[in-house]
Write the structure tokens for this entry.
Amino acid sequence: MMTVLQGVVMELQDCALPLLKEILPTDSESTAFKDIDVAILVGAMPRREGMERKDLLAANVKIFKSQGQAIDKYAKKTCKVLVVGNPANTNAYITRKYAPSLPNDNFSCLTRLDQNRSATQVAQRLRVSADDISNVIIWGNHSSTQFPDVRHATVNKAGAVSGVYDAIQDDNWLKNEFIKTVQTRGGNIIKARKLSSAMSAAKAIADHMKDWWFGTKEGQWVSMGVTSDGSYGIVEGLVYSFPVSISSSGKYSIVQGLAVDDFAREKMDVTMKELIEEKDLALSDCQD
């Protein structure tokens, strides 16, 4: 494993990244997690074509239990933990469970990739840049049950800002093809290249951490899988993707007061049910 890791080190060195000052390759948790400010956990059992998420749970519980315990023991108590390895929401739940000395708000999972995918689909439909799309929401699980929601999203088209729904004017596309495209994008990438998303996932990680570290713009929010506080009727304690705003000090808050219609409610509850099932199955594999 260390030989492969050395190859990654050489790749990083050859990027000549201006902010990269030092690389410490290690297979020791005590070394890797000692006094860290950020943990980005990508090392999950990989998802293969045709594999169900439930098939990953048992093996990943062992991985993320171990990493959670290491974070609890060695990392700074202010460490921000981003779980990327799938099933990301439930892996984040397990990591948090085994790092009880850190606040729940220090744990998140990646749904920014789904947000970016959603923004791109809308932007292509409207013939604008993805940067012109704001306030897309990903509700729930980073899975095929996720609910990409653009009911509250806006588009800046030639300097004029309007709602995405008003701009697209195609309720059928927004409630069917658009949602399915985002929900199945990861699987379709695996079918096409026989590997999971790589560059797009790395870009989403960078987006997630930049906003978590420096904050979001006034009036804008981003999607993060975070610990539910019961907002929008989501079971407290689940790691569920919500729209969040983030202060310049890096503290996030779930955006409150957004209207949820019957269509959205149904979608949000379906993905919550899946997360509850995943959580219960994962906990059954925990041997405390």
Residues 105 and 227 are 7 Å apart (CA to CA). The mean pLDDT is 95. The chain has eleven helices and eleven strands.
